[in-house]
Design goal:
Blueprint (H helix, E strand, L loop, with lengths): L4 H8 L4 E4 L4 E6 L3 H11 L8 E3 L6 H4 L5 H10 L4 E6 L6 H4 L4 E5 L4 H9 L3 E2 L14 H8 L4 E2 L12 E4 L6 E4 L5 H8 L4 E2 L22 E4 L11 E5 L9 E3 L4 H17 L4 E4 L11 H12 L2
Parallel strand pairs: 1-7, 3-5, 4-8, 9-10, 11-14, 12-13, 12-14
Antiparallel strand pairs: 1-2, 2-6, 3-6, 4-5, 8-9
The protein binds adenosine monophosphate and magnesium ion.
């Protein structure tokens, strides 16, 4: 994968560069350069207690950050990397505090997107939180980054991202593996590979184990709500995203139970709803009975968008 030298040089100069991954676009900076990482926090307006994920392109690089690769970790790495699974390891003491927000663990992922892999392999491991202003929906297209930052942020344009939702975050630093953030790789898939029960972090707890989970995310300016009997499809100030019902109308998008497609498009629909001046985004309810591994992640993101 050819990556223009200006992007590579920018990372080497301690600047930030946005680049595509298969989940969402990341705002990349050298994972060993604290000044560059400080720029990531400042650019995004990200709270400093929300740690970053280190993105690697080479399996050996995990050893530079993680102090221990357990047998379980090895199984998961072999099965799911490169891919949308972030693993939380006990960290090496050299890992910068600004990366981990002072935690004793570090989150690492090897993305599968060819541009991401090429970019990291030509530079170095990169921290890369979603390349949006903190609080806005994650970017799934280069134009979303322009909308948040204008032309002040360099962007490698790789078109629309394939998954559309952020990675699954799995903590394997303790006795029992625990999902801290649901993503497209689901609990069942993880349990099958590990041959062990995987817990799910209880978001209602006062102090979520994944600090990022306590912050508002994913929300457009329009109100997001689940479809109820009070809602009228004739209300043209609302955008409807339907999963089961099919109605042809300008303010209605029909997904016909294609949950992967909804995941891919959700944040773009949120952003476009604001551009088009909709007051509300109304989503037809669905639950985990449908057999798609992306449903828990979709429910997690939509619930966050509706609860703010
Ligand atoms: P983002 O990069 O914006 O997708 O957010 C990264 C997510 O990973 C946030 O929810 C963080 O809280 C979480 N995270 C990063 N590092 C750690 C860690 N060491 N322990 C637990 N969660 C982490
Ligand atoms: Mg984010």
């Amino acid at each position: 994968m050819h990556i223009a030298s200006k992007y590579i040089q920018a990372i080497k100069n301690g600047e930030v560069v946005a680049f595509p991954t298969e989940t969402v676009y990341g705002l990349g900076a050298d994972a060993w350069n604290s000044e560059a990482i400080a720029k990531v926090f400042a650019t995004k307006g990200r709270p400093s207690d929300n740690p970053l994920i280190v993105h690697i392109s080479d399996f050996d690089q995990v050893n530079d950050f993680a102090s221990e690769i357990t047998e379980a970790a090895q199984l998961l790495i072999e099965e799911f990397w490169p891919g949308p699974l972030t693993l939380v390891f006990k960290k090496k003491s050299e890992v910068l505090d600004i990366v981990t927000s002072g935690l004793t663990t570090v989150a690492i992922r090897m993305p599968s997107n060819e541009i991401a892999l090429g970019f990291i392999s030509k530079t170095c491991p990169l921290v890369a939180p979603s390349a949006n202003k903190s609080g806005a929906p994650s970017p799934t297209k280069a134009s979303h980054i322009k909308a948040d930052f204008g032309s002040s942020v360099l962007v490698i344009d790789g078109g629309s991202t394939q998954v559309g939702l952020e990675s699954t975050v799995l903590d394997i630093s303790g006795d029992q593996p625990m999902i801290l953030r649901p993503g497209v790789i689901g609990k069942d898939q993880l349990e099958k590979v590990l041959n062990q029960r995987v817990l799910i972090d209880d978001k209602s707890s006062e102090k979520p184990k994944s600090p990022g989970q306590k912050y508002s995310h994913y929300k457009p300016k329009a109100d997001v709500k689940w479809l109820g009997s009070e809602d009228e499809f004739e209300d043209t100030s609302s955008l409807f995203l339907l999963l089961n019902t099919e109605i042809k109308q300008q303010n209605i998008i029909n997904y016909s139970q294609d949950f992967e497609k909804l995941a891919r498009e959700l944040y773009d629909r949120f952003r476009q709803a604001d551009i088009d001046g909709y007051q509300k985004v109304i989503i037809e309810p669905f639950d985990e009975r449908y057999s798609s591994s992306v449903i828990p992640a979709l429910l997690n993101r939509i619930k966050k968008a509706t609860s703010i």
